[in-house]
């Protein structure tokens, strides 16, 4: 495994040296005058490798703009979702904040917290991205955010464990194939899958992806309009039925509903389960969180598509995130300028080279190095519709309900019909 955090690639080291040299020259010329403007960026907690990447981008930007100081701040995933609304209402609001787009962004825009970037993104900025990426941050034909990268949810697989149980990962194409694999793994003494049920959203990946497979992205959009029974329609009930039948096979680790996402990620990295349904972003974090810091060896690691479901309308759709940044209403023009710099073609290509994520900027996919990143890019390119996480796409309040019913279904606390009805009710009263 490459120890990215200890030894940066030569181009990046050179880039850092140049940035440091420019910063020193600038400091001498201005007698280390204090920055006139501070730009605060709020981001969900990430890997050390990605933090280093942002540090290098900031160093280069500050060298070119000595009157501006850029500060990145990080909050753990679940806490970010609950704290962001409060921060946006306070005098401690960030200038730039990480966003999943969708109805959550709409709530923030309607509350008056977000700056309209429609004009700023003209003149070549918007043209860097596919239309689908910009659409995730477009409301009523106005653009309120800039895309950073797309994510895809799939099964990370430890092939050393699956082969031990006689399971061929590449042969898992249907939901029935997955169920058979779970039975074979359990019978061989291997924990089939790990999940961070405590945080809600990892379990929602099961219900949300099943709903996407069954209804399709277009069917989910139709449900938002109240068509075909809305979220009480057959695909959403069936998603609950399939999830509960799956849980009856005992696929997860002991105490899965009291396990956090971070702990589940570490457990997979430590080889404690064969499968982990998670986003492609977990490649480096899972390694870093493992006891050894090395995680599952690359030669034993695979990333496979979520299986097809018989009769589903969305078997060719993908499920994941379209992640980016939004700018708060009263932020300075320097904040917009930094965001434009952060997301320029060179920096997007550098992120792809480092294997941090799969950028959406045109041409950056050419730099993807790992087979996992290339697999994600392939899934996205072949997808008919990229459905954004339902706990984000449906807005904060409805998303919380989606996460809750996913855990309740897994514990047998509610029926599939009750789960679908709760989502529909939340949507109606959002």
Automatic annotation (TrEMBL):
Keywords: Signal, Transport. Gene3D superfamilies: Periplasmic binding protein-like II. It holds the Pfam family SBP_bac_1. The keyword Transport applies. Residues 1-34 form the signal peptide. SUPFAM superfamilies: Periplasmic binding protein-like II. PANTHER family: MALTOSE-BINDING PERIPLASMIC PROTEIN, MALTOSE_MALTODEXTRIN-BINDING PERIPLASMIC PROTEIN. Belongs to the bacterial solute-binding protein 1 family. This is Extracellular solute-binding protein.
């Amino acid at each position: 495994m490459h120890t990215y955090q200890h030894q940066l690639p030569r181009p990046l080291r050179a880039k850092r040296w140049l940035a440091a040299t420019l910063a020193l020259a600038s400091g001498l010329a201005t007698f280390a005058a204090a920055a006139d403007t501070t730009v605060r960026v709020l981001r969900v907690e990430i890997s050390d490798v990605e933090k280093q990447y942002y540090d290098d981008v900031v160093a280069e930007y500050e060298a070119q703009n000595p009157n501006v100081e850029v500060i990145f701040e990080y909050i753990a995933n679940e806490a970010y979702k609950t704290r962001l609304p409060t921060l946006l209402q306070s005098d401690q609001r960030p200038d730039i904040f990480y966003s999943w787009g969708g109805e959550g962004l709409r709530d923030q825009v309607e509350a008056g917290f977000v700056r309209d970037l429609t004009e700023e993104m003209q003149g070549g900025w918007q043209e860097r991205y596919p239309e689908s990426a910009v659409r995730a941050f477009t409301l009523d034909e106005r653009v309120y955010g800039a895309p950073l990268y797309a994510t895809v949810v799939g099964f990370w697989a430890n092939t050393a464990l699956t082969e031990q149980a006689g399971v061929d990962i590449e042969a898992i194409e249907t939901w029935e194939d997955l169920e058979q694999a779970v039975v074979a793994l359990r019978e061989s003494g291997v924990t089939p899958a790990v999940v961070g049920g405590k945080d809600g959203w990892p379990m929602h990946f099961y219900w949300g992806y099943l709903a996407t497979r069954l209804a399709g992205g277009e069917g989910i959009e139709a449900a938002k309009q109240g068509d075909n029974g809305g979220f009480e329609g057959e695909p959403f009930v069936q998603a609950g039925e399939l999830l509960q039948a799956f849980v009856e096979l005992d696929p997860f680790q002991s105490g899965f509903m009291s396990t956090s996402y971070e702990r589940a990620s570490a457990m997979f990295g430590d080889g404690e389960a064969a499968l982990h349904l998670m986003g492609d972003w977990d490649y480096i974090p899972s390694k870093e969180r493992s006891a050894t810091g090395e995680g599952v060896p690359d030669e034993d690691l695979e990333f496979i598509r979520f299986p097809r479901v018989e009769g589903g309308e969305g078997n060719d759709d993908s499920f994941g995130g379209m992640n980016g940044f939004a700018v708060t209403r009263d932020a300075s023009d320097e904040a917009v300028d930094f965001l434009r710099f952060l997301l320029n073609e060179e920096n997007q290509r550098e992120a792809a080279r480092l294997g941090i994520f799969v950028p959406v900027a045109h041409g950056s996919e050419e730099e993807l190095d790992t087979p996992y990143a290339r697999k994600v890019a392939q899934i996205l390119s072949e997808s008919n519709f990229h459905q954004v996480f339902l706990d984000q796409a449906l807005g904060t309040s409805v998303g919380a309900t989606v996460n809750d019913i996913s855990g309740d279904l897994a514990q047998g606390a509610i029926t599939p019909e009750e789960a679908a009805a709760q989502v529909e009710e939340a949507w109606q009263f959002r």
